[in-house]
Write a structure and sequence with these properties.
With about 180 residues, the protein is α+β, with helices and mostly antiparallel strands. It has two helices and 13 strands, in the order βββββαββαββββββ. Helix 1 runs parallel beside helix 2. The chain starts with a strand and ends with a strand.
Length: about 180
């Protein structure tokens, strides 16, 4: 770490706090309702959601949202929902996140790697997420709870793979696909 920046464009205290929410429910207070479910596990709505799909010895997350920040937040929700039931958990700590301006695929990888790092090094899981995209990059925070306060429902993620990585804007907002090594 140099000048408060962590290699890969993320700054802040990686080992301080942890994780976020991830059940099949609205992401934020007053958040989006579940309007449909399809293939695999997930939360699907017209404007934002995610779904978890099996992938040979791995996990594939597809997420979408009206803008890039919402799409990335849904990807984080999907990641957490793949290994932990966090319904009803209130954050006990907060981790700040800053990903410098970079291509969208690099920002997606950086955000998901941060969640995995916080889980591994800090033993925490996000239950709330706030992301804002600006000219200065992606900024936000994760409201976290200790790992022992969530119910494990799947294997913990090990790494974000670059195989099949995709994120792009479209007619209905942003969508992404990422494979996670579990």
């Amino acid at each position: 770490m140099r000048d408060g920046k962590i290699p890969g464009g993320v700054s802040g205290h990686r080992a301080t706090d942890a994780a976020r929410r991830g059940q099949l429910r609205p992401a934020r207070p007053g958040g989006r309702a579940i309007t449909a479910k399809s293939g695999g596990r997930g939360r699907v709505s017209v404007s934002a959601g995610y779904r978890l799909l099996p992938h040979t010895a791995d996990l594939m997350i597809e997420a979408w949202g009206p803008d890039k920040a919402a799409c990335l937040a849904e990807a984080v929700e999907g990641l957490v929902a793949s290994f932990a039931a966090t319904k009803g958990r209130t954050p006990t700590t907060t981790a700040r996140l800053h990903v410098e301006t970079a291509p969208a695929d690099e920002q997606l990888v950086a955000v998901l790697e941060e969640v995995i790092y916080l889980l591994d090094a800090g033993g925490v899981v996000p239950v709330e997420i706030t992301l804002v995209d600006s000219d200065a990059g992606l900024k936000g925070s994760f409201g976290m709870v200790p790992l022992d306060q969530v119910t494990p429902i799947g294997p913990a993620p090990k790494a974000v793979t670059l195989h099949g990585l995709d994120i792009h804007p479209g007619d209905r907002g942003w969508s992404c696909r990422v494979v996670i090594d579990v």
